[in-house]
Amino acid sequence: MNLPQRSPNQDLPWLDEAVFLNSGGQEKQLCVKVFRNLGILARVALVFSRRGFDISKLEFNPAHEEGLANLELSFPANETQMEEVIRDLRRIVDVISITISSDS
Amino acid sequence: MKTLTGAQVLVKELEQLGVTHVFGYPGGAAINIFDALYDSSIKFVLARHEQGATHMADGFARASGKIGVVLVTSGPGALNTVTGLLTAKMDSVPILVISGQTNSTNLGKDAFQEADVFGATLPVVKHNELVLDVNQIPKQLKKVYQIATNGRPGPVLLDIPKDVSGAPLNCKIKSVSEQPPKQINLAADQRPNLIKMAELINQSERPLILVGHGAIIAEADPEVAQLSDLIEAPVTNTLLGKGCFSEEHPHSLGMLGMHGTAYANYATTRCDMILSIGSRFDDRINGKNDEFCEGAKKLHIDIDPTEIGKVVKPDAFICADAKIALKHLLPLLKPKDGSEWLKELFNYRERHPLTESKQESPNLAAYQVIDALYSLAPDDTIVTTDVGQHQMWAAQHFLSKTHRSWLSSGGAGTMGFGFPAAIGAQLAMPNKPVVCIVGDGGFQMTQCELATAAKEKLPVKILIIDNKYLGMVRQWQELFFDNRLSGVELDDNPDFVTLAKAYGMKGFFINQSEHVHEVLSEALAYDGPCLIHALVALEENVFPMIPAGKSAKDIVLKQPKTQLAKPTGST
Asked: Is B126 within 8 Å of A42 when comparing Cβ atoms?
């Protein structure tokens, strides 16, 4: 089916300018092992949007174990912000483990 | 084997879990579940608004310690529970909301009364699930039930599309529900923390115990009393910790924090050790974090590992159920002589009693009504409150003696909570007197539940402290914003006594101090629901008060003569 290619904001082009989130600090990386249950991506994303933090990169891969997945997240954050993110991720029932990637 | 529908299995599973009451409001997407309830022993309580139903389940859970269950329909029905879910989440209350959903084939098509309830409730629940396969109903129900009631309790939601609840399900209902055994031992990895904490308590000379809601949830009141007795330590409580340690005990300092007692707040400036048991060092308690209990060792017992170090970096902590932690801690402690420390606090209390800020006035003061209620109410009375000035006066003047006798919205500060919570509490505890103390503003947010109380013939006593203002905001505007009153006048309040009559309820009115005892006695003795409209002084303020973001040293004990600086704290 050919759908019309039209930006929803075509008449208001300035609306297309992204509002950049400012979380400051250096790029951090986390690997989060999760149950692949419904909404897991939304639950993880909410940890960031709630605080006005940005996610610069996100990868979602099935893990070796059945029903599990690995989430690789990159985001700019200082140490306190990083701590907050980890704390909130731990509150998600479907999160199994969180590892801080060594190169961050 | 008889084939049942998913809805019938759901209701039977709820019965197996020991659920006796379900609060809610029907609708098309939930109609299969309502049909299944028809054959059930579970009592359905029809609220007049889903928010009310959710607060009722919350009050039921806080009063009984059991899960509170809500059943609502899709779309607006489910979204009206969001405020109740937030209230329960902030205060760690186990409630389960079951919402009907549009047919699963219609999901995402903007069908009639469709809302993404799963998505919309994500930030306000401990956990939620959408059921897409009828065979998963028993498993998903048990999962959310376990999550709601284990560890740090919290609200959960189960969203069930109508075609799923109506589909046939071959399922054997097990006669006994599998419950994991309640843990009684401290996890081995907490052992070193325990020893470190015991050392710090043994070394302290001016210890202070702070009890929060976690201590009540864990039913740790005997252990807290033993601890205070052994180390002769004063005990203060958070708003939600009221009743864990009797506020009539000579070691009790009453409530701590923004509107806490002068002496409890003074104790935080003088103690050399503070032990928080099931409190999360909320900003109402700490004020300014880096000046909170400056120089004192900070010890923290909390079941939720993500609370340890969240606000205050503890010198020692135990991550465990408060009762289990204290049971293991007590044998390691040495008795102390706290007489000098307790005397210092007692002397301070003599100089700065709660009545310090009260001025002679011809008008009836709110605290006089609450004081009178406290002196007249039986010992086992359950008090619920709404949010605002009346809540703080009630917290200060209505001393709590036993756990689960004080139900109030703390973290969320939800106006409209008090009255429906009282209905839930009364259903959970039919033999206890239940009084709700509400303001004229908050009561009107959920006053439609008068119909529910009348219909269920619940002998709830509603005390409205009416000052014709949204008083707490007016107080801020007076103290910090040059008395520029904006959006706070409620001078068009209805005649509450006539309103009660319209629902077939008895109504009482007081506006003079000499009638308070007589009217309250009559109301408390009245058999059935009744409302007491207390018209009080219009512009009274709550003191003591620590302006938001300030420390205990900045406490304002009585009406200041000059304008105060605008507070830096947000609320």
From this structure: no
d(CA B474, CA B169): 57
- Residues B471, B472, B477, B480, CA torsion sign: positive
In the CATH hierarchy, which fold is given to the domain comprising A25-100? Alpha-Beta Plaits (3.30.70)
Residues of B in contact with A42 (CB under 8 A): 119, 122
Residue of chain B nearest A90, judged by CA positions: B306
Give the model's pLDDT for residue B180.
Answer: 64
> What residue type is B339 in one-letter code?
S
Report phi then psi at B494, rounded to 5.
-75, 170
C-alpha angle with apex B118: B115 to B124, nearest 5 degrees?
A: 110
- Check if the beta carbon of residue B384 is closer than 8 Å to that of residue B93: no
Beta-carbon separation of A39 and B306 below 8 A: no
Every domain of chain A and the residues it spans: 25-100
Average pLDDT over all residues of chain B: 96
Q: What is the pTM of this model?
A: 0.96
φ, ψ at A55 (rounded to 5°): -115, 125
pLDDT tens digits along B116-169: 999 999 999 999 999 999 999 999 999 999 999 999 999 999 999 999 999 999
**Helix H or strand E encompassing B518:** helix B516-525
pLDDT higher than threshold 90 for residue A19 = no
DSSP strand pairing (B461-466 vs B530-535): parallel
Percentage of chain A exceeding pLDDT 70: 80
CA-nearest of B73, B24, B77, B22 to B47 is B24
Mean pLDDT in residue range B64-71: 98
Chain B nearest CA to A93, separation (Å): 7
Q: Which of B117, B164, B306 to mutate: most A Cβ within 10 Å?
A: B306
Which residues in chain A are contacts of B306 at CB distance < 8 A?
87-88, 90-91
Upper half-sphere CA count for residue B266 (Cβ side, 13 Å): 21
Cβ of residue A80 closer than 8 Å to a chain B Cβ? no
Taking the C-alpha atoms of residue B476 and residue B371, their distance in angstroms, rounded to an integer, is: 24
Q: Which of B392, B472, B505, B545 is catalytic?
A: B472
Task: Work out the end-to-end distance of chain A between its first and last CA atoms, rounded to an integer number of angstroms.
Answer: 45
Of the candidates B172, B516, B536, B202, the one whose C-alpha atom is nearest the C-alpha of residue B376 is: B516
Q: In the prediction, which pLDDT does B302 show?
A: 97
* Shortest CA gap B453–chain A (Å): 37
Integer Cα distance of B284 and B90 in angstroms: 13
Spatial neighbors of B433 by CB under 8 A, at least 6 apart, are B377, B378, B380, B381, B382, B459, B461, B524
* Whether the predicted pLDDT of B179 surpasses 70: no
**Could you give the CA distance from residue A21 to residue A40 in angstroms, rounded to a whole number?**
22
Are residues B95 and B155 in contact, defined by beta-carbon separation less than 8 angstroms? Answer: yes
Q: In this complex, do A42 and B119 lie within 8 Å of one another by their Cβ atoms?
A: yes
Work out how many CB contacts closer than 8 A connect A with B: 25
Contact partners, residue B248, CB within 8 Å, separation at least 6? B399, B401
Domain architecture of chain B: domains with CATH: 4-169 (3.40.50.970), 188-351 (3.40.50.1220), 364-537 (3.40.50.970)
ipTM over 0.95: no
What lies within 8 Å, CB to CB, of B56 at 6+ separation is B23, B45, B47, B68, B420, B421, B423, B424, B427, B449, B452
Contact check, Cβ <8 Å, A38/B123: no
Strand partners, A62: A69
Q: What is the pLDDT of residues A40-58, one digit of tens each?
A: 999 999 999 999 888 999 9
